[in-house]
Every structure is written in structure tokens, then in C-alpha cells.
Write a structure and sequence with these properties.
alpha+beta, N-terminal domain of MutM-like DNA repair proteins, Helicase, Ruva Protein, domain 3, 2 domains, 5-stranded antiparallel β-sheet, 4-stranded antiparallel β-sheet, 11 strands, about 30% helix, about 20% strand, elongated, binds zinc ion
């Protein structure tokens, strides 16, 4: 499942081919993905200029010159395939993937951008740009972890009210938007906080230490996504997933990278695996 850095990477990859460009025609090849598409979606997209391509949590927001915003969610397996007609390999791969190309943007300059989603957990909707923060997918989200509203005071106050383990609290999208399982594991390792510690029991200092750690971990992942993006664009134009090297995530039984002598443990919390070092994280 793509997390915030993956979505941001896709947004940055789409920016040069979509922002300021005209969607000459949009093909909508089925009535729905996870939810039905909005009425007349193809007509509402065709001929429109993409004024800005933004991100809110794990949603990509394309502001159109019609005053509407296209909300794009990649779901579990959604990918954006960019075909700039400059390689025979692109055409071959585009033909193979065509089966799951549910929405295709034909840009006026000839670029073809396909939203490909084999598992169909993705979503698209259109809403008034002015009211996008009130959209039902967005209106309950907490602050952006990389934005100004997310700071030490805010987080400490929010965690004080939570009796859940810190791991679960940080996954709560009302507290902070867009943080997923992988990066929460990494953040807790970096701050030396046990995933099992009660959120309300964290001291102000330890709660505050989470804010820069969250920003660091996300920014590093976005940077590494950027470099993998450059590689991807050279090979097949596909935007979606990339592999990072994680300190704890998916490393059960391996030695802790702090050389503390312990191994990485795994525990299931709220149905999700938490990876942590029992010696370094308290
Ligand atoms: Zn350790």
C-alpha cells in the first residue's frame, strides 16, 4: 500500500506532464473503482487545464480551470503509467497493461497518462476546488505531518487524550494525516519509543521528539523516491512503488542496526505488525 512518500513521489512525477497542461481527452473505461466515479467524469475532465497538482495526505489533488478538483487515491495497487511516445518499449508495455488502465488522460501534447489499478481499491472523485477540504474523504483528516499546523505542542496535546499504544495513535488519521505502518515503525525506532507505550503516558519531551523524527523519515523517503523515480522514468515510465532500506520494518529476527546486541522483534497491534528493538525502544 503506498504511503505518503510514495504518493508524493507520484505527484512529483506527474507534475511535469500534467501541471499547466491541457487534458485533451479523458477515457473512463469502467463505471467505478472502489466507489462509483462521479457523473460525466470524462466530459468534466476533457478540455480542462490542470492548474495545480497538490497532495493532501495520500490523495493527489488536480485543480482544474473549471473550478473543480480531481481527487485521486492510488488505493492498494494503483499506478500512473506515463507514455510519452518516445520509445517502442513504452508501447509494448502499455499494450500489455491496457486491461487495467481504468482512466486514461490524453494530454494535448500527446502524452498518455494511464491510471492502472489491478485490484481496484483506488478511487477518483470530482469536487469544487473551494470546498475540497470539506470532501468526505478529506474533512476528517488531521494536519499534514510536513505542514506548519503539525508541531510539538499540537502532538503532545493530541496524544495526551489517547489511551491507545503510541503505535496505534500515530496511525490514527485524525491525529496526523498520511502516516502509515512502515514509517511509524521507523519513527518509533529513531526516537527510542516502544510501540507498546501508552500514548497518554509519553512525556512532553518524548512526544515532541516525534515531530522532527516524523519529518526526517518522510523527507528521506521522499528523497529516495525521487531518485528511484529518475530510474523508473528511464526504464518504463511507471510511477508507483519503490523499495527503501528500513531500520526495523520487516526485519524481524535481524540484528538491531544500533549494534545494541538485540534482535528486532515483531508484535501485532490493531491487526498490523510492529517491528521494534526491545532494548533501544522503551
Ligand atoms: Zn537496539
Amino acid at each position: 500500500m503506498p504511503e505518503l512518500p510514495e504518493v508524493e513521489t507520484v505527484r512529483r512525477g506527474l507534475q511535469p506532464v500534467m501541471e499547466g497542461r491541457i487534458i485533451a481527452r479523458a477515457d473512463v473505461n469502467r463505471p467505478d473503482l472502489r466507489w462509483p466515479f462521479p457523473d460525466n467524469m470524462a466530459e468534466r475532465l476533457s478540455g480542462r487545464t490542470v492548474m495545480a497538482l497538490r497532495r493532501r495526505s495520500k490523495y493527489i489533488l488536480a485543480d482544474l480551470d473549471s473550478g473543480e478538483t480531481l481527487i485521486i487515491h492510488l488505493g492498494m495497487s494503483g499506478r500512473m503509467q506515463i507514455d510519452q511516445h518516445n520509445s517502442a518499449k513504452f508501447h509494448q508495455e502499455a499494450a500489455i497493461l491496457k486491461k487495467h488502465d481504468h482512466v486514461v488522460f490524453h494530454m494535448q501534447d500527446g502524452t498518455r497518462i494511464a491510471f492502472n489499478d489491478a485490484r481496484r481499491f483506488g478511487a477518483m472523485d470530482l469536487t469544487d476546488t473551494a470546498g475540497v477540504e470539506n470532501h468526505w474523504l478529506i474533512n476528517k483528516l488531521g494536519p499534514e505531518p510536513l505542514g506548519n499546523a503539525f508541531d510539538e505542542t499540537y502532538l503532545f496535546e493530541a496524544l495526551k487524550k489517547k489511551s491507545a499504544p503510541i503505535k496505534t495513535a500515530l496511525l490514527d488519521q485524525h491525529i496526523v494525516a498520511g502516516l502509515g505502518n512502515i514509517y511509524v515503525c521507523e519513527v518509533l525506532f529513531r526516537t527510542g519509543i516502544s510501540p507498546k507505550r501508552k500514548a497518554s503516558n509519553l512525556s512532553a519531551t518524548r512526544a515532541a521528539s516525534l515531530v522532527p523524527a516524523i519529518r526526517e523519515v518522510l523527507n528521506e523517503a521522499i528523497e529516495s523516491g525521487g531518485s528511484s523515480l529518475r530510474d523508473h522514468r528511464q526504464t518504463n515510465g511507471e510511477l508507483g512503488y519503490f523499495q527503501h532500506n528500513f531500520a526495523v520494518y520487516d526485519r524481524e529476527g535481524q540484528h538491531c542496526s544500533n549494534d545494541c546486541g538485540s534482535k528486532i522483534f515483531r508484535v501485532v497491534q490493531s491487526g498490523r505488525s510492529s517491528f521494534y528493538c526491545p532494548k533501544c525502544q522503551r
